[in-house]
Design brief:
Order of helices and strands of chain A: EEEHEEEHHHHEHEHEEHHEEEEEEEHEE
Order of helices and strands of chain B: HEEHHHHHHHHHHH
CATH topology of the largest domain in chain A: Rossmann fold
Strand order of the largest sheet of chain A: 6-7-8-3-9-10
Distance between the termini of chain A: 50 Å
Radius of gyration of chain A: 25 Å
CATH superfamily of the largest domain in chain A: P-loop containing nucleotide triphosphate hydrolases
Oligomer: heterodimer
Strand content of chain A: 25-35%
Structural class of chain B: mainly alpha
Distance between the termini of chain B: 39 Å
Largest interface: A-B, 29 and 21 residues
Strand content of chain B: under 5%
CATH class of the largest domain in chain A: Alpha Beta
Radius of gyration of chain B: 25 Å
Number of domains of chain A: 2
Number of helices of chain B: 12
Strand order of the largest sheet of chain B: 1-2
Structural class of chain A: alpha+beta
Helix content of chain A: 10-25%
């Protein structure tokens, strides 16, 4: 059943310069896809992440064949798909609403693709049984969709989409209707399933945690363009622009200009307090720049900062709030210019943060090697 | 306490359902009972009834009347079957007209949808008789239809349309279209487009998608519309009298004739009872089918 040459292919799905405009009811036009290019490797779990209206669903629908592109090409495993109708494409979709056929039993839902392809009854029944077993729904063939819980329906939708071993599985926010615990266990199951099947998954979501948990690579989309593509840690630690920095995780973003720079060391004046000092950056004096410091990169005291000998500095401000949220404290400081910074402090003894009162002056330390400089923005 | 609440609920129910129960009881069940009794009574010589048990009304429909003055005659059973055939044809043609239209309208933008649904129901605003006379004007030898065909040179002589079974079917379909359209439209409107996409995604072509997904899911609308059209079509007498003339007699005309002209109420009542029996028969099949489907599903839930 497995392809013998299922090893990673560099460009299993390749989308080049895909553009799609929609006309809004007000008569304007929206670029759902703006000359977007992306390639997906074989056996890769890739996530398209972005806010609603960023074009991720349009991209998915273009791949499955439900949406025509205005221009651009879609190539799957070496075959151009643009003129191929949806029912002839080697991809299957798990729909956001599941789209189970309400009039058919679970067995008939899962076996649908085999039935329309005219697969013999005996083989079809065996494969339906096997696939239901894979998703943990053995023996449910005769039930109707409405007799199942949301999580079970989700699994049926999954079984129905994988039974025919598509080359590519598209998942359109399939977990958004599930409650949190179920969602988390399904995330792990999906990842496991993807490994077992050895096919590429393209997963669409607006939930960054979901994206970071499951994916080999994440593509962050906004305004019909790919803002950044990379593995989850890369996206998180080194966002390539302000949008990504803001969209993924929480971040403190400082805008300023470089007042001193030599040998990879730079000082940046932000107007929000003392200058930020960074090392290992390629900046010249006078440049405008933006610096990202994630909340958990801050520490309460200098000796907790692991700076690798590169030095450390602090930012101080008035404490506005310190809230215990389980393992961590969430600390919000107000800086001299009235802006706020957020920090996540892990305090083993808990008494240090608990002793702070709002209005106290607090110093937050960061290693000079820590902050991430966002490359010069070409567009605001 | 709970008894008091129970009592109040009953009182509210009685107030809410009282008027309709009373109205239907007096004006529907009452006359129905009279008809049922009359259908088993002997017709009076000059109208009215003789209070004797008399089964020849039904015998006459089947061909065997009392055997003294009338001989075996299949004229009534023929009219009856012709009427069933006409009603079924009306159902079939209006289905063919309405299904694609409903599909197309359901895919339009909201404001266009509302406009088209309004247009479909527009004929209701004009008197039925006026609308049917319009069809007389269209279909008669010197009418619009023939003029156009003659003008285009498609035909050299007017074709005889009016007072034919075809004219009756055209008229019936015309008046029944809204009744067929609305239930079908309701079921197509409910059809989620994601299901059609799912079918295509899983490899179903257009025909397979139609047969395996669209048709089964819109079947309740089709059956509902068919029943709503079949029932009044079977007993309709206005369209056959206006567009069918004296040549196309339907069972509805027969009933009308028995009551209004022949003054043979018992025979008219017997004919009505037969129409009702046929309709109830079809309805029962439908209800049975629906119940079996539900029972199958609930049996699985328990299992």
């Amino acid at each position: 059943m497995h392809d013998s040459d299922a090893g990673p292919k560099a460009r299993f799905l390749e989308i080049r310069e895909a553009s799609k405009r929609f006309v809004t009811p007000e008569g304007g036009a929206v670029n759902a896809l703006d000359a977007l290019s992306i390639s997906v490797r074989g056996n890769e779990f890739i996530t398209l992440l972005g806010p609603s209206g960023c074009g991720k669903t349009t991209l998915l629908r273009a791949v499955s064949g439900f949406e025509d592109l205005d221009s651009g090409s879609i190539v799957i495993d070496g075959h151009d798909m643009v003129r191929v109708p949806a029912h002839k494409r080697p991809v299957n979709t798990v729909f956001q609403s599941y789209a189970l056929f309400p009039h058919l039993s679970i067995g008939d839902n899962v076996g649908y693709s085999l039935d329309v392809a005219g697969v013999a009854r005996a083989e079809r029944n065996t494969r339906v049984g096997q696939t239901l077993e894979m998703v943990g729904l053995s023996g449910m063939e005769r039930r109707r969709p409405r007799q199942l819980s949301g999580g079970q329906q989700q699994r049926v939708a999954l079984a129905r989409a994988i039974i025919n071993r598509p080359k590519l599985l598209l998942l359109d926010e399939p977990l958004s209707a599930l409650d949190k615990n179920l969602r988390q266990s399904m995330q792990l199951e999906l990842k496991t399933l993807q490994n077992e099947l050895g096919i590429s998954f393209v997963f669409v979501t607006h939930d960054q945690e979901e994206a970071l948990t499951m994916s080999d690579r994440v593509a962050v989309l906004d305004e019909g363009r790919i803002q950044q593509m990379g593995d989850p840690t890369e996206i998180y630690d080194r966002p390539s622009n302000i949008f990504v920095a803001r969209f993924i995780g929480e971040s403190n973003i400082f805008h300023g200009h470089v007042v001193r720079a030599n040998g990879g060391r730079a000082e940046i004046e932000t107007g929000a307090g003392p200058n930020l000092t960074l090392v290992g950056v390629n900046l010249q004096t006078g440049m405008q720049t933006s610096v990202v410091i994630r909340p958990e990169w801050f520490q309460l005291s200098a000796d907790e900062v692991r700076d690798g000998g590169e030095g450390r500095s602090s930012i101080s401000g008035r404490l506005r709030q310190a809230v215990f949220v389980g393992t961590d404290f969430r600390v919000i400081l107000e800086l001299a210019d009235g802006s706020e910074i957020k920090a996540t402090i892990r305090d083993q003894r808990r008494d240090r943060v608990a002793a702070l009162r709002s209005g106290d002056t607090v110093e937050l330390w960061y290693p000079h090697s820590g902050p991430h400089v966002i490359p010069q923005e070409t567009s605001a | 306490m709970s008894r008091m609440i129970e009592g109040r609920r009953r009182a509210i129910l009685a107030i809410l359902l009282g008027p309709v129960t009373l109205f239907l009881g007096v004006f529907f069940l009452g006359p129905l009972l009279i008809m049922l009794i009359y259908s088993w009574l002997e017709p009076g010589l000059y109208g009215g009834v003789e209070w004797n048990f008399y089964h020849h009304n039904f015998g006459r429909i089947l061909g065997w009347a009392d055997g003294e003055i009338e001989e075996f005659d299949v004229v009534y059973i023929e009219i009856f079957f012709r009427s069933v055939r006409l009603a079924l044809t009306t159902v079939g043609v209006s289905l063919l007209v309405c299904y694609p239209a409903a599909f197309w309208i359901s895919r339009l933008e909201e404001r266009w949808k509302n406009l088209f649904i309004f247009l479909i129901t527009l004929p209701f605003f004009v008197s039925l008789i006026v609308r049917l006379f319009a069809w007389v004007l269209i279909l008669r030898p010197t009418g619009f239809f023939n003029q156009v065909l003659l003008g285009l040179g498609v035909i050299s002589e007017p074709i005889n349309l009016i007072f034919t079974p075809t004219a009756v079917v055209i008229g019936m379909v015309y008046i029944m279209i809204p009744f067929m359209f609305l239930p079908i439209y309701a079921s197509i409107e409910k059809l989620q487009s994601s299901l059609l996409e799912a079918s295509a995604d899983l490899g179903g072509n257009r025909l397979q998608t139609f047969r395996r997904v669209i048709l089964p899911l819109t079947l309740p609308g089709i059956i509902g519309g068919s029943i709503i059209v079949f029932i009044p079509s079977l007993g309709n007498f206005v369209v056959p009298s206006l567009l069918g003339g004296a040549k196309v007699v339907m069972i509805g005309n027969l009933v009308e004739h028995q009551f209004l002209y022949a003054r043979n109420w018992p025979f008219g009542a017997a004919l009505s009872m037969v129409i009702m029996a046929v309709v109830l028969f079809f309805l029962m099949i439908y209800v049975r089918m629906m119940m079996r489907d539900d029972a199958a599903v609930s049996a699985q839930t328990r299992g």
